[in-house]
Amino acid sequence: KSIVVLISGNGTNLQALIDAIEAGQIKGRIRAVISNQADAFGLHRAQEANIPTVVLSHRDFADRLSYDLALMEEIDRHQPDLLVLAGFMRILSDRFVEHYGGRMLNIHPSLLPKYKGLNTHQRAIDAGETEHGVSVHFVTPELDGGPVIIQSRVPVFSDDTAEELAARVREQELSLYPLVVKWFCQDRVKMENGEVQVDGKP
Ligand code: GRF
């Protein structure tokens, strides 16, 4: 399958996907990595892997919709079967989300529906959670609200800092996202009528 990945930053999740593809675990190919930030380190990771990169800065556009339309045009040049959000720090318009309905995934560092939005680790600590984690979900117009495909849980220890907890979650992220992308590329995960169907047998 053809994959396009959107990033804004470090790109550790992107790297995990690149590694899994190079190891032959995912039957897919990343056709392009697109960033809204020119200095995103993930762009270097893509270049190292000989993947075409594009920078499309939201600052060059008057409003959200005109940016999203330009982004759609850029993405669609690569005809993706799957669009992967990997730390893409933008809220997407309904028009964009509907265009990629059922073929856009996001990874969010919380056990959704808990802690949508930002600063999830600190908020979980502040709330006295004993368990936290990460979710991979299909993207729907509600922010971090699309149906969850899979979650991975980690313990929260009483003396955890947000950084320590983030690192524990991150370790899970790096195996979880490639797993779901692998399933998607095998047609083993779909969204139908807003619900997820997974055939996750090994
Ligand atoms: C990750 O924490 C991911 O869960 C969230 O954004 C972060 C991206 O990190 N959606 P990276 O750019 O993949 O390193």
From TrEMBL:
(6R)-10-formyltetrahydrofolate binds at residues 64, 89-92, 106. GO terms for biological process: 'de novo' IMP biosynthetic process. The active site is at 108 (proton donor). InterPro entries: Formyl_transf_N (IPR002376), Formyl_transf_N_sf (IPR036477), GART (IPR004607). Residues 2-181 form the Formyl transferase N-terminal domain. The record marks 144 as: Raises pKa of active site His. Gene3D superfamilies: Formyl transferase, N-terminal domain (3.40.50.170). Keywords: Purine biosynthesis, Transferase. Its EC number is 2.1.2.2. The keyword Transferase applies. Coiled coil: none annotated. Pathway: Purine metabolism; IMP biosynthesis via de novo pathway; N(2)-formyl-N(1)-(5-phospho-D-ribosyl)glycinamide from N(1)-(5-phospho-D-ribosyl)glycinamide (10-formyl THF route): step 1/1. Catalyzes the transfer of a formyl group from 10-formyltetrahydrofolate to 5-phospho-ribosyl-glycinamide (GAR), producing 5-phospho-ribosyl-N-formylglycinamide (FGAR) and tetrahydrofolate. Belongs to the GART family. This is Phosphoribosylglycinamide formyltransferase. It comes from Bowmanella dokdonensis.
